[in-house]
Design brief:
By secondary structure, the protein is α/β, with parallel strands linked by helices. The chain is about 35% helix and about 15% strand. It is built from 11 helices and 9 strands. The chain has helices at about 10-25, 50-60, 85-90, 105-115, 130-145, 160-170, 190-200, 210-215, 235-240, 250, 280-300, and strands spanning about 40-45, 65-70, 95-100, 120-125, 150-155, 180, 205-210, 220-225, 260. Helix 2 links the parallel strand 1 and strand 2 (about 65-70). The longest helix is centred in the last third of the chain and has 19 residues, at about 280-300. The chain is globular, with a radius of gyration of 19 Å.
Length: about 300
């Protein structure tokens, strides 16, 4: 039995197989419509989510299965003091696979150690968000045609942004990827990502403050929101939340084929006027998330479709 805690849980070859499967699901949805008949996914979300939770549930339903779970800690026995380990032991009696989001780093790993069903980390604090990374990789490969030899700008909250941390760890395994880290000083990438991942891999990277300075050289711009829920001080959040706003004027500085990605939800960091730009790929990214989660469910449940 396998779990998914980090994008690094799959080798590059396994990732390619997973993305190939997701592409086949996109092209031939009817072929997979009953692949998980009789199967159930439990979505255990201890903090709010729209896209990730509904994407997992839609993925299982698209495969012919069903979904159950909860959307906040307050609506679960966690509000009574039940441990994550006990919760997953109980849920293992009801479902075949589980997707868990938790505000504490490492909570899904704790669950996986006590579980008798596959557990997927759907986001743990400011640490990892592996299925968003799989979504990002599928989006990039599908729209750009490859994952190597690209220059990607990561903009916004690089300190607490778990999607950014996971994506960097995944992309350093591909050749020729260059990183431009765009953030204010207060939200710079954590030292362990800078030193243990970027520097250790030998990939070229630089840190800048102004988005305008980075845009002309990028193949991809990955925008992130400043996450209010990660701040301890309201004043700090208010001061930082509108530090970057991507608008039509700034888009004129970018290459004609640059893609804009965003894990969503957005707040103010991408103006709605950018939505009509053909380079805006963040809503297509959401659809790719369903395909890749369908592929992941099939892979972890070891369901083969001929």
């Amino acid at each position: 039995m396998r779990h998914l805690m980090s994008p690094l849980d799959f080798s590059v070859e396994e990732l390619d197989q997973l993305l190939d499967l997701a592409n086949d699901i996109e092209k031939n949805p009817e072929k997979y419509a009953h692949a998980c008949d009789g199967k159930k996914i439990a979505t255990l979300f201890y903090e709010p989510s729209t896209r990730t939770r509904l994407s997992f549930e839609a993925a299982m339903m698209n495969l012919g299965g069903k979904a159950l779970g909860f959307s906040s800690a307050d609506s679960s026995s966690a509000s009574k003091g039940e441990s994550v380990a006990d919760t997953i032991r109980v849920v293992s009696c009801f479902a075949d696979i589980c997707a868990m989001r938790h505000p504490k780093e490492g909570a899904p790993l704790v669950a996986s150690l006590a579980s008798s069903i596959p557990v997927i980390n759907a986001g743990d604090g400011g640490h990892q968000h592996p299925t968003q990374t799989l979504t990002d990789l599928l989006t990039i490969r599908s729209l750009k045609g490859h994952l190597d030899n690209i220059t990607i700008g990561l903009c916004g909250d690089l300190k607490f942004g778990r999607t950014v941390h996971s994506l960097i760890e995944a992309l350093v395994r591909y050749e020729g990827v260059k990183f431009v880290l765009i953030s204010p000083e207060e939200l710079r990438i954590p030292d362990y990502i800078r030193d243990d991942v970027l520097k250790a891999s030998g990939h070229e990277f630089k840190e800048v403050i102004r988005l305008e300075d980075a845009l002309p050289e990028l193949d991809l711009l990955y925008m992130t929101r400043v996450q209010k829920e990660r701040f301890f001080n309201e004043d700090d959040y208010v001061r930082m939340k509108d530090f970057y706003i991507l608008d039509k004027e700034k888009m004129q500085l970018a290459r004609p084929d640059m893609l804009v990605l965003h894990p969503l939800p957005r707040v103010n960091e991408i103006s709605v006027e950018v939505d009509s730009d053909p380079r805006a790929a963040y809503f297509r990214q959401v659809q790719y998330g369903v395909y890749v989660r369908m592929a992941l469910i099939l892979t972890l449940l070891e369901v083969e479709v001929c």
